[in-house]
Specification:
This protein is of the alpha+beta class. It contains two helices and six strands; from the N terminus they run ββββββαα. Bound molecules: zinc ion (2 copies).
């Protein structure tokens, strides 16, 4: 089995057609826009992303390393955000959760701090 030539298509943001991309990490074909029309930047199956936007400078990033989901943040509106961290340069990003994101992974991330508290929970039992 020969490797297909890795020809990266030029991604122009001016075209508004429905695009797909293959997840670099689990291989799933992902549509660029979620069902509700929001721009999707992470894979719904493994929730991983790629560092292609420089969120500090505001432009495209040359990093292109893997961004792994590390935490959930809840906005005042009640919406969930996924916090991603780049494995190479440690940049942090937050992205809205899509309706078809892997809910098991989301919940696992959300309860992780409660499952592994950095202080003894017995303290609260004495209150
Ligand atoms: Zn994936
Ligand atoms: Zn990076």
């Amino acid at each position: 089995m020969s490797n297909p030539a890795n020809t990266a298509p030029s991604t122009s943001r001016s075209t508004s057609k429905i695009d797909t991309f293959a997840c670099e990490w689990c291989g799933l074909t992902v549509s660029t826009f979620a069902a509700d029309g929001t721009l999707r930047n992470h894979c719904p199956a493994c929730l991983r992303s790629q560092h292609i936007t420089d969120h500090v400078e505001g432009g495209p990033s040359q990093c292109r390393a893997r961004m792994t989901p590390i935490a959930i943040a809840v906005l005042r509106t009640g919406d969930w955000m996924v916090i991603h961290r780049c494995v190479r340069c440690d940049e942090l990003t937050s992205n809205p959760v899509c309706t078809d994101d892997n809910q098991l992974l989301l919940l696992r991330m959300a309860v992780r701090p409660l499952a592994q508290p950095p202080f003894p929970l017995e303290t609260f039992g004495a209150l």
